[in-house]
């Protein structure tokens, strides 16, 4: 076996003595200095996205007065109660907003529901999957009893 007499080049060293750079080896003067970020204006550590801040705000407790009594409820519940009151006064936008949120909440709970299917339905699904796997196995192997044309020009009719 032939040995390679070239000296091993370390990753990050320029391939050319001139420092010009080449494929996957940028010029030395344009490389990031040690400790320098490639995205200095990027997201800072510990900064939070809108979703997490919104969860915190809606989860805070506030004191409301309902029926002459003071209650502590979350901001979310207080806002929904306020929407409901406005809707009862005849505010169409409040009614629309409240019903829209209720409908979205209901559709989410239906989508994540874990309703078990009856045994009859499970049997139907299993048979359908069985047929599908047998069908795909046949198409991968190809149909049986089919003569392939060998290009000889002999047609069998």
UniProtKB/TrEMBL annotation:
Cross-referenced InterPro entries: DUF5681
Pfam families assigned: DUF5681
Domain DUF5681: 29-105
Record's compositionally biased regions (Basic and acidic residues): 100-109
Region (Disordered), start-end ranges: 1-52, 100-157
Superkingdom assignment: Bacteria
Official protein name in the record: DUF5681 domain-containing protein
